[in-house]
Amino acid sequence: MSNKIRLGILGGGGDSLIGVLHRVASSMYDKFQLVGGVFNVKLEESLNFAREIGIPTDQVYKDLDTLIEEELKLPKDKRIEVVSILTPNFLHFPMAKKLLENGFNVICEKPMTTTYEEAKILHETLKMANTVFAVTYTYTGYPMVRQMRHMIANGDIGKIQKIDAQYYQGWINPIIHDKEKRKSTWRLDPEKSGISCCIGDIGTHAFDMVEYMSGLRVNSILADLNYLYEDNQMDIDGTVLIRFEENVKGVIRASQIATGEENNFTVQIYGDKAGLKWEQENPNYLYLLEDGRPMRVLKPGHTYNSNLSLDGTKLPPGHPEGIFDSMGNIYKGVAKAIRNEDYDHGEYPTIIDGLRGMNFIEKAVESHKQGNVWVNIDTA
């Protein structure tokens, strides 16, 4: 009998890109086996999708309540052990809370909830459930991101002096300039997305990444957001000044109206000895910058990399790895946690990352609405 972790998925059916990403990622390392879930709001479409991807339909359900009810009737060695939530934002909190209350492990897409208050409730629920909870800040799974984290913690760049994160996309341009279209997309609907579009969607990736890489916590922020049109309730562009502990300062620049940009996510961290730069569109290159020396390029798979970086590298040097591999490394870390194996705390983002991400989103909107003032980020 297979000892793989039995995985259920909520959402992600049809031609959903995020669904493909999670299914492929979960299949890496042979740690998980997708056995069922609720792929669509219509049961027949969920069943048809299960048949299309070649899994049995006996653990495919019409809704989450039915999934929980029926799964808890099964013996533990047949029951779904972990559920990935890939639905629109407004469903993350009620689904995750119900799953935790019934003893399931959870992997949740970001943002974790639509409000900070919901995130705090989830955090308390997890404490009582004592299960595993991961938030898929996907880019933390890249080997050279993990190498950058290691080098900074190791003191290779010295004391951090400046942090700069940029996340530019242009995808919302065809929507935002059309009044009817911007009223019809769920991304710009506060009831479904929460209070922020750009900062909530990609700005939170940058926030999590700068804390993950630097090992520092953001203490306070000042945000200037752009809504572009008076009838648009959701930001689609913004600049956030950030202050860390130890007098370190930086900036997060995020935009979904950066015309022509695809997924331009870049993080640069400068110390008093050297600087490091990583670019998501070229994820296998980590640039090491030093005064008076040529720029060096570090690549995955080489023995000069850290154990954490090498553990997330599946291919020999010179063979590119990408977004599927990055998500796969997060799933691998979650598998270790579920099986109570030793793992590095940098292997997957936890509920604390999700909690701080939601606090960042709300504080950014608060800072902007109060007239671009400094506001504090809560400790967690």
TrEMBL record:
SUPFAM superfamilies noted in UniProt: Glyceraldehyde-3-phosphate dehydrogenase-like, C-terminal domain, NAD(P)-binding Rossmann-fold domains
Stretches assigned to the Gfo/Idh/MocA-like oxidoreductase N-terminal domain: 7-137
Residue ranges constituting the GFO/IDH/MocA-like oxidoreductase domain according to the UniProt record: 145-276
InterPro entries, per the entry: Gfo/Idh/MocA-like_OxRdtase_N, Gfo/Idh/MocA_oxidoreduct, GFO_IDH_MocA-like_dom, NAD(P)-bd_dom_sf
Name of the protein described by the UniProt record: Gfo/Idh/MocA family oxidoreductase
